[in-house]
Amino acid sequence: MRKASSDISKLRKQVWGAAYAALNLLFPPRCAACGSPGCDLCANCYKSFESVGSRACPICSEIREDSRAGPCLRCSSQTRAFRKVRSAFRYHGALRKAVHAFKYRGRANLAAPLAQAMLEALPAPRSTTRLCAVPLHAKRERERGYNQSKLLMQELSAQWKINCLPDAALVRILATTSQVGQGYRERQANMEGAFQADYDIVAGHEIIVIDDVYTTGATIQACARALLSAGAVVVDGLTLARAIGHVPVD
Hints:
alpha/beta, two-stranded antiparallel sheet
């Protein structure tokens, strides 16, 4: 079953690649952020991505403009299932537009430049860790045609030479409602029990969960709980972007 799933995933990627190449001949790509012709993400927009900053929370990467060091108030008062999450950039401006196109407008080829930006902004993990993408529910992945977090993970894995866990390692067992517009408590409740991990695959590993955007941490928190319950040694997270304050994620 796992081999069949892998074969289907490879075939789907090949189909998307062929379709995208054909479309490029008829309709040259435009920058997903500013619309300039010739590429999926232009150099100016790429260079505009803004780091979370050196004063970000060391546990959840919350963006802070004050000079206070150490964990943010939420991380100081609550126990996280994950050890730490590192985010590459602030979720606004050109990056927000690019992520929206990546997730909702079929711009799967944005995985390569967005992952490259992550590679340049974040330190490489230890080679003994394993990468794991936040899974989509099967229905949503069929509708979208791909899992954007998995595409980012595959790009990072190839560059870092770090192995990915198979799809069966962590699966989404609940078709959760959209979290757009939800607050902290609603997001936490929405993700409760949403994931299930496979002990035979996960046990004994240090795992890094890959996602596109961190808002309240509800998704990575739920993933970490499932992975730790299945025997993972420790769970960290890496995301492309970190939402600023209460900015909603599209």
